[in-house]
Amino acid sequence: ESALYVMAAGFLLQFASAPAVVAPRRHPAVVGRASTIGGTPAVTDRTAVGTLSLPSLGIGTIAWNGKTEEDKARIAGVAAAAQARGLDFFDTAERYGASPLSLIPAALAGLGLPVDKSYLGGDCESNLAEWGRGATVATKFTPTPWRRQASDVVDAARGSCERLGVDSIDLYQLHMPDIIQPFRAFGVVDRKDEIYWDGLAEAYKSGLVRNVGVSNYGGALLERAQEHLARQGVPLVSNQIAFNLLCRREGSLATLEKGNELGVRTLAYYPLAMGLLTGKLAARNLRQAVLEKRVSPQRAADLCRYLEGGSGGTAGDIPRNGVLPLLEAVSDVAAARSKTPAQVALNWVMCKGAIPVGGASSVSQVEDNLGALGWRLEPSEVGQLDAAADDLPFDFKGAGFQTTDSKFVGYGFERWVLN
Q: Which percentage of the chain shows pLDDT scores above 90?
């Protein structure tokens, strides 16, 4: 009983957070002059992803879970401002916004105990039914130990439809490979990736989802998934991974290039490396934010290591001055372009063939992100930034319990491998 209790407790932190054809070859982004409709380039700077035409910049909604009426009004305003400017692609997940109490049954179900296995996720999907009405919305299915059949994917997709208030989901993604294996230490591993691919195919054929994708898949697994789905006549259209100027090694860039080769579009989360590439983060402000309980100590400590140098935590060993040399290169290009560092960093991601999916917690952030659209860096500028990134002896690995290659599941980190 004690062992089961410890294992269950560990799971509580698991989610705090026509004929068979291969997917179409790489579709170029369509870049045009800024639209006169609302003065926004998001209307013309768009990218084809499966059957969808998306702005070449998405918005992640993991933080769109207001707890107070003030927070809800602010987020609603951000969503409205984004859509009014043509930034109408929102990415969410069934688990976004989950509270620890709501996950107690999830922990027990993960151990195979007889508890209710109905929806156990967060509120972001339900919020988007109101705030994202009329937008293109992507959401995700989370592999868990008790979801053992293709029908579980279909049932979850149906639940997401109900919460989002739609008849079908624009883009339905697997959140990660089936890495949560609580009994791995005892030699018991039960991978269900192919079962989940079958579930995606069933959801697609039933009309519950219009396009299917995956997340955190390396090139080899991505190709396997595409081939598996293609045999059932289902195109795999996207793969969402952590990718930015600070996160290119350890398989990220190679995975993006493999996706380009296969015709699978890469969606890039953490495109600004948790704000490090905006040039706005300062260590003193992060430390003050910890005192004011606006940022967790673990997250702040890691971000400070990236900024100043240091050792430990998720960041690992960072030399003195951290990301400063790269930020100087980004700032130089930004100044020459009359752009902000964030706009340059986002545009670099687009130049690599990916759609950056960054967060937005204010209207001013929406406006700044919008400035990344409607133009592209010159190859020489991309090369300049590549060289500056190559000179850094480290990669961005995340901060605190939010990482680029793993999920903290209470009993430890379960990792995926891109390379």
A: 74
